[in-house]
Amino acid sequence: MSDINTETQRPFLALASKLLVGEKPCPVRFLYKTVPANLRDTGWRMYSGYEDESFLADKKNMMPYPVETLLKMNTSLEKLLDSKPGTVWERIPGSDWQEVHDYEIPTEGDEVEAITETKTVDELINNP
Predict the structure, then answer these.
(1) If DSSP codes are grouped into helix, strand and coil, which group holds residue 88?
(2) What is the pLDDT along the chain (128 residues), one digit of tens a residue?
(3) How far apart are alpha carbons 124 and 128 in whole angstroms?
(4) If DSSP codes are grouped into helix, strand and coil, which group holds residue 118?
(5) End-to-end CA distance of the chain, in Å?
(6) What is the CA angle 27-48-12, rounded to 5?
(7) Are 18 and 46 in contact (CB under 8 A)?
(8) Where are the domains of the chain?
């Protein structure tokens, strides 16, 4: 029953860097929240902090992932998920999350398409 409540309280997809998942995932160290693009989008955009401009220029490097999967990898994210759109957080290794006030959130474009094109949760898990 708690899984259903979690899903109805907040949609379950975040757009995340490919550096955060895989065999040797990097931890989330930077994230911000936009206005969700649709009912499945949480609005969260998550990064390791190691992404450079050329990495981010390739839209295939940012993929929608289930928030629950990202939470299992980093439980400290849970306390941030209820933040409002426009909120930005960063974490230096060995430190707590700090809210950032001087970062300008980029306008959304192709990355929103990645979330709206997603058909099922199984497709996300099996073909990220």
Answers:
(1) strand
(2) 445 445 444 448 999 999 998 889 999 999 999 998 888 899 999 999 999 999 999 999 999 999 999 999 999 999 999 999 999 999 999 999 999 999 999 876 645 555 555 555 555 555 55
(3) 5
(4) coil
(5) 27
(6) 75
(7) no
(8) 2-126
Tokens 């306390």 belong to 79
DSSP 11-59: --EEEEEGGGSSSSPPPP-EEEE---SSTTEEEEEEE-S---HHHHHSG
64 within 8 A of 15, measured Cβ to Cβ:
yes
Helix residue ranges per DSSP H, 44-118: 53-57, 67-73, 110-116
Please state, in angstroms and as integers, the Cα–Cα distance from residue 120 to each residue in 65, 124, 128, following that order: 11, 7, 11
